[in-house]
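Below is a concrete protein record.
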Amino acid sequence: MYIRFVNYLDKINQYRKSKISNRNFLVILAVIVGVLAGLAAAALKSLTHHIEEFLQSDWHWKYKYYLYFIFPMIGIFLTVLYIK
């Protein structure tokens, strides 16, 4: 299955080389990466805003303030997992 996937990517790359110059290909990839980075930033900002609203709402819960400690710990843990 891996070999078929590599062959498929090779065929796509050969087609790309015959139709698009390397310079234009890099420009297209830069646009795609920029759009995806913008979408990821918007999603992260939205998620952060919703977590902030959740923590600062008038919802009364006995252990609510422990979440101020737990959420950063989750973030640190995910960062460590991502780096390793």
User: Anything to note?
Assistant: The helical segments are 2-19, 22-56, 67-83.
